[in-house]
Specification:
single chain, 133 residues, alpha/beta, Spore Coat Polysaccharide Biosynthesis Protein SpsA, Chain A, 4-stranded parallel sheet, 4 helices
């Protein structure tokens, strides 16, 4: 299990000409209670000012630690952008990812790990490039 390392604040590059869309970020998590708050903070920093609707779908893959409780706590704190899916047991990452994709409302879906090995600040630029191609 990897622990999220604190990243310095970054200003996301949000392309001005993004076509209309709804963005869903899908993050499967297993025994990552310590990563939930840093992940949500970084995602919110990275998507602040994003010009279109977005959500983050956090999937608890049957964690045996405090991950489910931390997901629920943070969902209340961060509000409508956060959706939580709780699986009744550990189905492994592929199934957890699929559960998140099935739950996502976006027409653009980005997947990432919960330990911040992928920096959310890259999401707006990546989505912009995808939609313009």
């Amino acid at each position: 299990m990897t622990t999220a390392s604190p990243l310095p604040p970054a200003r996301p590059e949000i392309p001005a000409d993004l076509p209309p869309h709804r963005l869903s970020l899908v993050v499967p998590m297993y025994n990552e209670a310590q990563n939930v708050a840093p992940l949500l903070e970084r995602v919110h920093q990275s998507l602040e000012g994003y010009p279109h609707p977005w959500e983050i779908v956090l999937v608890d893959d049957g964690s045996s630690d405090a991950t489910p409780a931390e997901l629920r706590r943070c969902a209340k704190e961060y509000g409508t952008h956060v959706r939580v899916v709780e699986l009744m047991r550990n189905f492994k990452q592929t199934a957890a990812m699929q559960a998140g994709i099935d739950t996502a409302r976006g027409d653009v879906i980005v997947t990432m790990d919960g330990d911040l090995q992928n920096d959310p600040v890259d999401i707006p630029r990546m989505v912009g490039r995808l939609l313009r191609e």
